[in-house]
Structures are given as C-alpha cells and as structure tokens.
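Fill in residues.
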C-alpha cells in the first residue's frame, strides 16, 4: 500500500527473443513514466542470440530468463515483477508521450479498482 505522498508502482513485463534492435527505444519510451509511477521493468528473455540482454540491462531493466514462447515468458514476468499495476509490452512497442499520465488518470478513479485497461 502506498502512502498518499508516494507514487504507485507499475510492473512492466517485456517478453523478448532476439529483440536487441528495437528494445532500447522501447525502454527509453518508459522513462517518461517515472514522473508518475515507480517502475519495475522486467525483460523476460526466451534465449536470444543477439544483444537483447545487454540492451535490457543498459536500459535499466531487470532480466529474467525463461523458456521461449510468449505465454511462458509472460507468466515468468508476471511472477517476477513488482507493482500495484501490471503492463505487458511488446519489445518493439514505443509508447506515445503522456501515456503514463493517461493511465494514471484512469486508474485513480474510484471505479477503477480491479479493472483492466488497455491503450
């Protein structure tokens, strides 16, 4: 439970497999959210042969290794991540500006408790 003065935590799970080329941009797009949320970003790698893991660590993410397959990776990430909320994100997705403020505004509504949001 957060104090009234603290930011809510948001766990971000990014499944990857040879996603090194686009992962840095995906992680940079999350930086803006740090003004609104305390982020726990977990990259779940399914056995990449490229620089995905190095890119993830350079971008500030924790890395969890998993069997390949989106379902297995999402499950492993959901088990590892910490947060009041959970965001599943594709490794090649670059979120628009203000996405975090929009998500925060939606989730603080009284009727938002226990709801699922998508953008």
């Amino acid at each position: 439970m957060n104090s009234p003065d603290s930011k809510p935590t948001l766990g971000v799970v990014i499944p990857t497999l040879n996603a090194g080329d686009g992962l840095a941009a995906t992680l940079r797009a999350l930086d803006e959210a740090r003004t609104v949320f305390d982020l726990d970003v977990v990259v779940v790698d399914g056995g990449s042969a490229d620089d995905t893991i190095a890119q993830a660590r350079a971008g500030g993410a924790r890395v969890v290794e998993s069997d390949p397959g989106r379902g297995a990776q999402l499950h492993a990430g959901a088990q590892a991540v910490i947060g009041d909320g959970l965001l599943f994100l594709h490794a090649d997705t670059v979120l628009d500006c203000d996405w975090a403020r929009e998500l925060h505004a939606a989730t603080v509504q009284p009727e938002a408790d226990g709801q699922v949001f998508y953008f």
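The chain is about 30% helix and 20% strand.
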